[in-house]
Amino acid sequence: MIAGWERVLVLAPHTDDGEFGCGGTMARLAEAGVDVRYVAFSIATKSLPPGFPPDTLAREVREATAVLGVPEANLTVHDFEVRTFPEHRQDILELLIRIGEEWRPDAVFQPCLQDLHQDHQVIAAEGLRAFKRTTVLGYEIPWNNLEFSYQWYTSLEARHVERKVEATSCYASQQHRRYSDPDYIRSLAKMHGTNVGRAYAEVFQVYRVFV
After folding, report:
1. Structural contact between residues 174 and 180, judged by C-beta atoms closer than 8 angstroms
2. Which of 58, 67, 107, 183 is the most buried (most CB within 10 A)?
3. Domain boundaries, given as residue ranges, for the chain
């Protein structure tokens, strides 16, 4: 297990954010027997390309998280409207507090505070408020981060990276986005691994660590 964790919570503002930000780490944790829970806050219906039914991303996130080893019972999908999270800060905070009280995760993975997207910023800020006594790590979304501190590296094996690639490929509705390219995902993991003498890695910003 990583750092002795037994329960890990992944917060995804929109379906697929968690996979892009920490999909390899999720695969490694699940493989090690860690209980991984995934909470998505929006299925981004308004951002779907033409021709996809409204529940597309709700279905795709089930397929993607299953690839990473997350049981369907550990997946929660909310339907806050995309780009309106600042209007729902209190509702989101109270939801997060309930999760913390009921599930008591050992660590939380969430977007970083420097993320440009307004929905990501809300989840990052309210996550820090809700989990004051929990290890909190901010994951990297390169296309949204003007700056990012490389403070925590999770080393990965090729199989973890390939599960991340397979998980992101479950999002058929998002394959038009350049960052969905498998070569990009592999290259990013290889670059981070090379920087610390490993084959592959994902990198995180440290907000709080309890040992």
Report:
1. yes
2. 107
3. 7-208
pTM of the model: 0.97
pLDDT higher than threshold 80 for residue 2: no
SS3 203: strand
Question: Chain-wide mean pLDDT for the chain?
Answer: 97
Rounded-to-integer distance, Cα 73 and Cα 183, Å: 31
The two tokens of residue 209 are: 């660590």
pLDDT-derived band at 170 (thresholds 50, 70, 90) equals very high
Residue 12: alpha-carbon gap to chain centroid? 5
Question: Tens digit of pLDDT for each residue in 135-153?
Answer: 999 999 999 998 999 999 9
The CA distance from 68 to 169, in Å, is 12
The Cα 124–Cα 160 span in angstroms is: 25
Cβ-in-10-Å burial (0-12, 13-18, 19+) of 12 comes to buried
